[in-house]
Design brief:
The chain is of the alpha+beta class. The chain has 18 helices and 31 strands.
């Protein structure tokens, strides 16, 4: 007969933990939060120290009755929600509902769902940490005040359905500011001169470095002509050879933000998908005879700390698999990412490095395997030796001009044998080995290639870049990145096109109003400081009520001014040239989650909508009559199809071209990945590189 009840958030977590604890424990799930602020009203008594008025979440009645009944049949109730502020708040709400004294030892936390970690946690239950609860309450109330005070104002003055949020508004402003930077950018001309050289049948390149012994930038054609004249068709003479050894250190194990960034770069995952799949790996996967096991540690963390036990296990594994040279003399220690990072958790790592990705592959879905491999590779490499690179720099003199060639090779792979961190530019690091050259040797250049370039504007934010920027600026916390990015798209403030964020007209209008009447909400430093204040509440050094009172004093005055001075704005839909096929009225442009679409201006009488299609200038390879257009799936993914659909059902995820395969005459499609772009045949193995003009966008 069970004598203890354990309450967690999800059925998957309950299933895993239940197997570890045995028959003396009943494990049930609360299905997330059980209480929250009401949706129909602000739910905060501002005049009464911001007292929140929590209500039971609709639909949770049967779950709560089940938990209440189960709690009456046992001697002890343990609350085992996730080990963070939100989990602590869930435990606190459950304690109130089940009449559990929050000072009792009822709270159990574990950073990983493995048999040993769970059993150890139940040996030392603790009281509910009210500092964590108050930090979560303060965030929830703060966001409720901003959202429920500003949003009705926007509905009244602009349009129903609009909303403003403390973190989401700053995020939209960052995307908008980047767009303004791009619009204001003035390209500047610059040139390069590249010489192609050969030595002992090995080809390599040298780039212009300087003139008359000094480094020189090439700003225009005149500068190039000056260099070419100074060279006077002279041979390239080796003037200096530098060889040195360089160490490259591994990246630290993942924290939430870096996991989201790297999953976006390497796997193409949205932040929300990364967190969803990581949750599955954390809560437990069925591993055949081994049973259900949590494969990774808790995935909402900003700490890079690793437990000594996990480090020792990793060192032993690496030594056995790769040899003793692949581990450093001492275990690697990684410093906190920033001063606000909390060390209550570890970094994200596999619960056991022994469970390597290939061994786990049969038990995992494709997405689970790819993310698990990413986490495993990153952790394993973080504990490995530095890579050793041999670098070589050679200066050549041609007349009074100096050209420089650089090369490198991997002397010892170290951590790079397992994993190398990606980058936001979608470039792959290449290692070019230079031939053995001696001072005084003379080489004849095969070609001298001057080329004009133009500076590029700053890139638009991808999800990876935006998460990185939010983290660096101290905006939001691990649990907020994914929902924030989802919200700003759902509201129609930004659109994600070709994996880049663009602000919409609606987003720009809302930010303009916010900047005029609520500048503090959009102030990056103010928002980051507020996150710091919430951290201080968690640490027990700040009073959450005082933080809210200090904020609300100014905010209330801003609201009064905005109510009186904000002008009503009528947003006119942009009318297209197309007419509705159903009622004949003009179609207008609307903004949805996945960008713009066409809708009937006769709404709500006529609800006809249609996607905006883009003709890519390619004849359909199936019917040879229609044109290929770019479309979006229900999930927002771009695909290509014939505009004669449904008469012609041609469809392709890859962009088709008008160019036939020289081998079999089938269609060639564009394939793009981190190593570049290629044309590939849909039928045979033929492929060719796509040479793209770097100044094409200009």
């Amino acid at each position: 007969m069970a004598d203890s009840l354990v309450i967690v958030e999800s059925p998957a977590k309950a299933k895993t933990i239940g197997k570890y604890l045995g028959s003396k424990y009943i494990v049930k799930a609360s299905m997330g939060h059980i209480r929250d602020l009401p949706k129909s009203q602000i739910g905060v008594e501002v005049e009464n120290d911001f007292n929140p008025k929590y209500i039971t979440i609709r639909g949770k009645g049967s779950v709560l009755k089940e938990l209440k009944d189960a709690s009456k049949k046992v001697k002890k109730v343990y609350l085992a929600a996730d080990p963070d502020r939100e989990g602590e708040a869930i435990a606190w709400h459950l304690a109130h509902y089940l009449d559990i004294d929050e000072t009792d030892s009822c709270r159990v936390v574990f950073n990983e769902i493995t048999k040993q970690a769970v059993k150890d946690a139940f040996k030392s239950p603790r009281a509910i940490n009210m500092d964590l609860v108050n930090a979560q309450q303060a965030r929830r109330i703060l966001d409720r005040l901003v959202g429920y005070k500003i949003s009705p104002l926007l509905w009244k003055k602009v349009k129903k359905g609009l909303s403003a949020g403390r973190v989401q508004s700053v995020t939209v402003k960052m995307i908008l500011d980047r767009e303004h930077e791009i619009d204001a950018f003035i390209p500047e001309e610059y040139w390069s001169i590249t010489a192609k050289l050969e030595h002992q049948k090995q080809n390599f390149e040298a780039k212009f470095y300087g003139l008359n012994g000094k480094k020189k930038e090439l700003s225009n054609q005149n500068d190039v002509d000056e260099v070419l004249a100074a060279m006077a068709n002279d041979k390239f003479t080796v003037a200096e050879v530098k060889e040195k050894e360089r160490l490259r250190n591994p990246s630290p194990p993942f924290i939430t933000s870096s996991l989201q960034q790297e999953a976006a770069r390497k796997l193409g995952f949205r932040a929300s998908k990364t967190m969803s799949v990581a949750q599955q790996l954390y809560e437990g996967v069925e591993l055949g005879k081994e049973g259900t096991v949590g494969l990774i540690t808790y995935m909402r963390t900003d700490s890079t700390r690793i437990s000594p036990i996990a480090q020792e296990e990793a060192r032993e594994y690496v030594t056995n698999k790769y040899g003793a040279t692949y581990i450093p003399d001492e275990p690697r220690q990684y410093l906190k990412k920033n001063s606000n990072s909390q060390d209550a958790h570890e970094a994200i790592r596999p619960t056991s490095i022994i469970r390597d990705p290939e061994t786990m592959k049969p038990f995992l879905s494709r997405d689970q395997f790819r993310l698990y491999k990413l986490v495993w590779d990153r952790f394993a490499s973080s504990q490995m030796s530095s890579a050793v690179l041999d670098t070589m720099t050679v200066d050549f003199n041609s007349g009074s001009a100096t050209f420089r060639a650089t090369g490198s090779k991997i002397k010892f792979a170290g951590f790079m044998k397992v994993y190398v961190e990606g980058n936001d530019d979608d470039t792959v690091e290449e290692y070019t080995l230079l031939p053995a050259l001696s001072i005084g040797e003379k080489l004849d250049p095969e070609t001298i290639d001057p080329k004009q370039h133009f500076t590029q504007p700053p890139p638009r934010y991808t999800e990876a870049r935006l998460v990185k920027a939010l983290e660096e600026l101290g905006i939001g916390r691990p649990s907020t990145y994914a929902p924030t990015l989802e919200t700003v798209q759902k509201r129609g403030y930004v659109a994600l096109e070709e994996k880049k964020f663009f602000p919409t007209e609606l987003g720009e209008l809302v930010i303009q109003l916010m900047e005029e009447f609520f500048p503090e909400i959009l102030n990056v430093e103010f928002t980051a400081n507020m996150e710091g204040n919430l951290d201080h509440v968690e640490e027990g050094t700040e009073d959450w009520v005082k933080i809210l009172a200090d904020f609300y004093e100014t905010f209330e005055k801003r609201l009064e001014v905005a109510e009186e001075e904000m002008k009503e704005i009528e947003i006119q839909d942009e009318v297209s040239d197309e007419l509705c096929e159903k009622c004949g009225k003009p179609l207008v442009y609307k903004m949805g989650r996945f960008g713009r679409f066409l809708a009937c201006s006769g709404f709500p009488d006529c609800r006809n909508t249609k996607p905006i299609v883009k003709d890519i200038g390619v004849t359909c390879p199936k019917c040879n009559k229609g044109h290929i257009v770019e479309r979006r799936s229900k999930k927002g993914r771009i695909f290509f199809g014939c505009d004669s659909y449904p008469e012609c059902d041609y469809v392709s995820w890859d962009k088709p071209t008008n160019k036939p395969c020289p081998n079999c005459n089938e269609v060639l499609v564009e394939k793009r990945n981190r190593s570049g772009a290629k044309l590939k045949c849909v039928s045979c193995d033929y492929s060719e590189e796509i040479i793209e003009d770097e100044n094409e966008e200009l």
